[in-house]
Amino acid sequence: MQSPILHKVPNTFPSIRDIRLYTLTPSESGPKLTGTDLHGSSMKGQRSISDFFHILDCLILAVNADGYKLQQLDDDHRPLAVPPIERSSAGNIAAGSYLIESTVEGGEIVQRWIPTFFDFLRAGTGSPSKPKAKKARHDGSGSTASEKLDRDPTDDSQSFKMRLINRDKGCVVCLAAGIQEFYEFREDSNRFEGARIIDVALNELWDTRGYSALVSDPFTDPTNADNPFASPTTRTKKDLRRINSLENGILLCPRHHKDYDHFRFAISPKTHKIFSFHPATIKLQGVKVKAPWDGQDVLYPPPHSEFLETHYSTSISRAMKGDGDDRELDDDDDDYEELEDYEELSEPEECQNEKVRIWLHDSLSGSEIMSSLDFTAENKGNIETSPLGIISV
Q: What are the phi and psi torsion angles at 160 (to 5°)?
C-alpha cells in the first residue's frame, strides 16, 4: 500500500480581530483614508459599544474636541449611510471597518502610547536566552528567569502558592463567577496554580519601575531572612527583588491561569472587575473579583493595583495592536522560543517601511508616541485607501 503524500496542515481559522480602524490623513490631493495599527474585536458580536469605547479611550485621545465617533465603512471603504456610532449608542459593536473622527469640525485625534510587558521584550532586556531558559527547566524550576538568582525554585513556588491559598481560598475567577472552586483538601493542590501578575522573566521591567518598593509581603521582607517561616528565596537571599510577593500573585485554576497569561482577560486595577478580550471569556465580562480583598490580613496582602494596571494595559494593547499572535507570558516550556521570535520581528532594522521603522524606533526608546491626525467633517467623502498600515508620526 502506497504511503499517503504529506502536505502542510491548513490553518484557516479566522482571527478574532474582525474590526479594522481607519483615520483621515492630510495630503496634497486632499484627505486620504489611512489604515491604523488598531484592530479590534466584536467578540463574535458580543462586545458592547460602551466597552469598545472604553478600550479605545486607552489608546486614542481627542484634542480640541469633546470626543470622537466611529463611522462605519463599506467594503470599498466608503462611509455607510448610517448614523455614526458614539459612546452613548446602545447595543453591540459589529464586525467591519470604521473611520475614527472627531465629534466636532477641526478636532484632532492623537494616538496614545501605553507601556506594556512587551516594551521590555522588544528592547531586548529582561528576556533570557534559550540556553539559560532550558537550563532553568532542566534544574526543575520551571521558571523563565534569565539568571540563577532570578529563578523560582520549586520550593519557593510551593511557598508562594500556599500563601495564595490561605489568602484567596480558591480560584478567584471561579469564585467571582459563582463557581465554588475552593481549596478544601490536601489532594486539591493540582487543581490550583499560583499565577504571577508580573512574570519572573520580566525582571528588567520590575527593576526599572521600582516595583520592589511597592510590596509589603512580610514573607519576602529581607529583614525576615533569618525567620524559618519566610519565603525560601528570602531566606537564601535569592529573591532580592521580592517578585514572589503576594502583591504579585493570584490563585487560579489551570484554565483561568492559562487565559490570564494569554491576556484573554484582565482584572481592572480600580474596580477589580474582569474585562474580557476573547470570546471564550466574554461571560466573565464585568464580574467582580473579591477573594483577594476579602478579610484583608497584613500577612497576606492583596494584589497591588500597579501590577494589575500593567497587565491590564498590556491586555488592551495586545487585543488592539500587533499581528494578533497568541503570545503569552507564563512558566511554560515554550515561552522563550515564542518571545524570541517576537523580538526578532520587532527589531527596527527588520522594517522596510521608513515610517514604521521610525515609529518602532521611538517605541523601543520608551518615548511617548502621539500621532497627530486631522479630521474634518467636510472631507469625509474624499477618501482613498492608503497602503500604510500604521498611524504616521
A: -60, -45
